Amino acid sequence: MTPPCPHCGGELKYRDSKKRIHRKEGGIIEWFIIRRLQCLGCGGFHTELPDCLVPYKHYDSEIITGVIDGIVTSDDEDSEDYPCEETMKRWILWYKENKERAEGYLRNTIYRLLDNRDDFLISGVSLLSTFKKIEVKPHWLGYIIRTIYNSGNYLVPVW
């Protein structure tokens, strides 16, 4: 079953597929065939990504999460040459630049899911920090990214 368009709620139809690189720990590279969908309502294009991929990033979401959480560093033997220190710095900068935006999107999503209850809007507690502590899986970033993008929002790339 294909989900509705995150922008207008219209029906999504298969358009084509494209190859997408997936870089894993230790320099392992996989290629995925990713479906691209087009909305019959607004005409927008959408790419289906699995939780292990983050939009505009080639590395596994667990690696990116580990770098953001300070678990994966350039000193680790597992990642001594992959990813490089400059890439890790860009990911940390990307997260810092988008933290407030992501927090707002999560609050908005929870507000709508809970039938306009404003408990989470008033609270000074960070939803990102709370979600990270729950530790559902090491892919917390992948789940948050999927929630943001599937609600029609986006995070700003940092080049």
* Biggest pleated sheet: 3 strands, antiparallel
Please identify the structural class as seen in this structure.
alpha+beta
- What's the mean pLDDT score? 84
Radius of gyration computed on alpha carbons: 17 Å
How is this fold's topology laid out?
Blueprint: E1 12-23, E2 29-39, E3 45-47, H1 61-68, H2 85-113, H3 119-122, H4 127-134, H5 140-150
Antiparallel strand pairs: 1-2, 2-3
Helix pairs in contact: 2-5
Describe the structure.
The chain has 159 residues and is of the alpha+beta class. The protein has a domain at 51-150. It is built from five helices and three strands. It has a three-stranded antiparallel sheet with strand order 1-2-3, with no helix packed on it. Helix 2 (85-113) crosses helix 5. The longest helix has 29 residues, at 85-113. The radius of gyration is 17 Å and the shape is flat. The mean pLDDT is 84.
Looking at this protein, list some descriptive labels:
5 helices, 38% helix, alpha+beta, three-stranded antiparallel sheet, single chain, 159 residues
